[in-house]
Design goal:
Layout: H1 2-22, E1 27-30, E2 35-38, H2 43-47, H3 53-66, H4 84-93, H5 97-100, H6 109-121
Antiparallel strand pairs: 1-2
Helix pairs in contact: 3-6, 4-6
The structure holds heme C.
Heme C binds at residues 61-62, 64-66, 72-75, 77, 90, 96-98, 103-104, 115.
Length: 133
């Protein structure tokens, strides 16, 4: 009986841990458009994965200048270079050199929003339940 109780407790704590580990942020507030973007269901759930539009645009566009050993002058960047809040502030302010140089104008507003969604979802803190929501 005691053994059963212990197994049950173990089972439940494992389940709870698993949920907290895999829970990426469910929504993101976008300051520029003043909208709330739902990231864990609907179309954005797909588009903010690495194979969706957000992930692909980051890899195919931003990474042109921000991969390791690139010759475009951008430093190495990846999803976890910033926290979720950090990425959101970064896109809200648009003060980076590449944004000021007009590089971002090559993307549509929608593409830029999706890159922001993607980075927000997979940032260095996105698996930290207390930070990312
Ligand atoms: C044509 C090249 C180019 C493209 C495309 C580009 N960048 Fe940059 N970016 C730069 C350069 C050059 C700098 C200045 C050097 C540095 O800080 O890396 C920079 C700076 C940055 C920084 C550092 C500033 C900071 O506050 O940390 C970030 C972050 C950044 N870019 C993100 C992005 C993102 C996200 C995209 C895609 C939407 C992007 N860049 C597209 C060239 C580019």
């Amino acid at each position: 009986m005691k053994y059963l109780a212990i197994s049950l407790i173990l089972f439940f704590s494992l389940t709870v841990t698993a949920f907290s580990v895999f829970a990426t942020p469910s929504k993101r507030y976008d300051a520029n458009t003043q909208t709330c973007r739902v990231l864990n269901s609907g179309p954005l759930e797909w588009e903010t994965r690495s194979w969706g539009k957000g992930g692909k645009t980051f890899k195919q566009f931003c990474k042109n200048c921000h991969s390791r050993d690139n010759n475009q002058g951008g430093r190495f960047l990846w999803e976890e270079s910033k926290t979720s809040t950090g990425w959101n502030n970064f896109f809200a302010r648009q003060t980076a050199q590449c944004a000021k140089d007009g590089e971002w104008d090559k993307l549509t507003t929608d593409q830029l929003l999706l890159v922001n969604d993607y980075l927000y979802r997979w940032s260095s803190t996105s698996l930290d339940r207390n930070d990312s929501r």
